Amino acid sequence: MATESELVRHGDLSFVDGNIAVLAGTDYFIVHQGLLVRHSQVLHELIAALDTTHAIEGRPVLALPDPSRSIVHLFQALYDGISFLSYDEQGFPIVASLLRVLTTYKVHRIRHDILRVLSASWPTTLSQWEAREHAVTTPDGVYSPRPSLPHPVDVIKLARDINAPFLLPSAMYDLSRCAPSEAAIGVFNAQLGDHIRLDESDLLWVLRGREHAARHFSTFIVEQLEGRAPAAWCLRRNDSNPLTKRTCQIAFEAITFELLRDINGIVSHRTSDPLYAMSDAEAMQTRESVPEDNPPTMRTCEVCRAEFSSAVLAAKEDFWGKLPHWFGVEVPKWG
């Protein structure tokens, strides 16, 4: 342990009426035992077992093994709340550091509050996922998740470290939409000067999940689009013009062709995204676009469109419900 002359008192998180010195590295904090004990049973037990023979500024010393910056984030949350947190790509390292230390010391309430915010971006329900995707799509339809959201590799690593499995399926699905080589490389961390990579087991689950998702989408195309007949009450079923009578069937054939080409996915930066592709199959029928991008041949009648919309919703819900199984995660309340 460093000598007292070598220690640095934290100016903002040291209080004249504090009654305990918390030491982290060479930094110390003069804080209030009652606050620590109220929020953390772990800290309560550590304080109860203190050797009071050592003191800093006349206060008993609780030495913690965590980096000083983690303890700064912990005390900021305890004293000031969590309004200082930012959940985007830039702010996520602080969120992750705080969640790890909150988990270590079992500060349950604040941990729960932060995870509730995170779950809006890494949700357990399809409706929340679609709201998240809409929020990071530009007005001209380009998908741009960063810098609004952290990289899924960072989220997966955090979820494993703090035992928050409900974050994993959506984060793994998010990562599975990248090329396998990108998923394997991981995300570059400027502070470390190196890439952060998934554990081998998690990477394998991401790749397996990607294959399951691709097969599910192929099944959707075969079962819901290839050779799809018009609805029984198609508004064009009794048209005397044979070509007009087949308009809805032709529209489904054109949509199938567009999905297989995945032009919209390329334009919007969302290739290898089955959930988006299924939604796009429905949107093609009503999207206001220039004729070259959305020709009239993709326009079905209202009855056929409503029937297909129901099939798309059912397929997406089935897809979403299978994510935990595909990625090897047990989540009790999913979907």
SSE map:
Layout: E1 8-9, E2 20-24, E3 27-31, H1 33-39, H2 41-48, E4 55-56, E5 59-64, H3 68-80, H4 92-104, H5 108-121, H6 126-135, H7 152-162, H8 168-176, H9 180-185, E6 187-189, E7 194-196, H10 200-224, H11 242-245, H12 247-261, H13 263-267, H14 274-283, H15 302-326
Parallel strand pairs: 1-3, 2-5
Antiparallel strand pairs: 2-3, 4-5, 6-7
Question: Can you characterise this structure?
Answer:
The chain is α/β, with parallel strands linked by helices and 335 residues long. The protein has helices at residues 33-39, 41-48, 68-80, 92-104, 108-121, 126-135, 152-162, 168-176, 180-185, 200-224, 242-245, 247-261, 263-267, 274-283, 302-326; strands spanning 8-9, 20-24, 27-31, 55-56, 59-64, 187-189, 194-196. It contains 15 helices and seven strands. It has a five-stranded mixed sheet. The protein has a two-stranded antiparallel sheet with strand order 6-7. The radius of gyration is 27 Å and the shape is elongated. The model is unreliable at 290-295 (pLDDT under 50).
Task: Produce a short descriptive summary.
The protein is an alpha/beta fold and 335 residues long. It has helices at residues 33-39, 41-48, 68-80, 92-104, 108-121, 126-135, 152-162, 168-176, 180-185, 200-224, 242-245, 247-261, 263-267, 274-283, 302-326, and strands spanning 8-9, 20-24, 27-31, 55-56, 59-64, 187-189, 194-196.
